[in-house]
Amino acid sequence: MTEAREPAGPHARRAPGTPCWVSLMAHGLSATEEFYGELFGWEFRPGPQQLGPYVRALLDGHEVAGMGQLPPDRRLPLAWTPYLASDDVDRTAEAVRLCGGTVAVGPLDAAEAGRIAIAADPSGAVFGIWQGAAHPGTTITGVPGTPAWNELVTFETESVSKFYATVFGYEREPVVSADFDYVTLLLGGRPVAGLHGVGHGLPRDRGPHWKTYFEVADVDATVLQVADLGGQVVRRPQDSPHGRVATVADPEGAEFSVIQNPH
Q1: How would residue 8 be classed by pLDDT, with cut points 50, 70 and 90?
Q2: Residue 207 Cα distances to 20, 83, 221, angstroms
Q3: pLDDT single digits (tens) 150-177
Q4: The CA-based dihedral angle spanning residues 143, 147, 152, 157, taken in that order and rounded to the nearest 10 degrees
Q5: What is the pLDDT of residues 81-96, one digit of tens each?
Q6: Per-residue pLDDT, 43
Q7: DSSP class of residue 215?
Q8: What integer is the mean pLDDT of 33-59?
Q9: Strands 209-216 and 147-154
Q10: I need a labelling partner for 36 at 20 to 30 A (CA). Which of 53, 127, 219, 255 fits?
Q11: 95 phi and psi, to 5 degrees?
């Protein structure tokens, strides 16, 4: 188990490209708060309302994630979305467009917290871009109930990894394997996210998408609790080289993974 790590000071800047926040857009915000509050021990307080009702989830007083409410007429896929740090959201958004991606929302100011954009890579996977001001992002990691890893599930990694490397300056470390298409994205030699090409194994109803892993103390107990709270088990617990892992969905169908003792 890693120690809880906090950025140096409340306004610490993350290196551009670092996943710095995760956010979920849900239909029923209060029921969603109840589910994750029970599962991860989160408490909630209001956040910036520029994009509609929004709360920040806290663990022991530390901000770990965000949740917003989708307008009733929006039929967007329900998914946890990672936000990647930027020193200049407007410039990053322009790079996204130049490299074949799209910018769906913003860039716009989120009150005094910072500046935000929501974009999609050329394959359609949605991610956020965050330029922190008063709000730097997740302020605690390495303990149960915090984001542990973000992974893009996509058709193939070669072209899409070029997109992320060009926009955010990542180094790329592919797995050398004929039957496993995986690229780790690094900043300064440190792994920060993964890209997993699954070809025709991609769910038809989802398309390419980012997946968030949350650390938990006991994956098997968490999976039972998810079912008790009205969620679903998508992939049962199994041991991986990175720790015991399972994929679940909340009662509205938003999928996420849980991992025990991540390396």
Answers
A1: very low
A2: 24, 19, 30
A3: 999 999 999 999 999 999 999 999 998 8
A4: -40
A5: 999 999 999 999 999 9
A6: 97
A7: E
A8: 92
A9: antiparallel
A10: 127
A11: -65, -40
The first and second tokens of residue 15, run together, are 């290196």
Question: Six-digit token pair at 172?
Answer: 């790329």
Alpha helices in the chain (DSSP H): 29-40, 89-98, 157-168, 219-228
Nearest Cα residue to 81 out of 19, 143, 166 = 19
Quickly count: other Cβ atoms within 10 Å of residue 35's Cβ.
Answer: 21
Radius of gyration (Cα) for the chain, nearest Å? 17
Q: What is the pLDDT of residues 228-241, one digit of tens each?
A: 999 999 999 999 98
Alpha-carbon distance of 232 to 252, in angstroms, equals 10
Q: How far is 107 from 122, CA to CA, in rounded Å?
A: 18
Separation of alpha carbons 135 and 138, rounded Å: 9
pLDDT tens sequence across 104-148 = 998 999 878 889 999 999 999 999 999 988 787 888 889 999 999
Whether 185 and 194 have beta carbons less than 8 Å apart is answered as: yes
CA distance 66 to 217: 21
DSSP character string of 54-101: EEEEEETTEEEEEEEE--TT--PPPBEEEEEE-S-HHHHHHHHHHTT-
State the DSSP code for 12: P
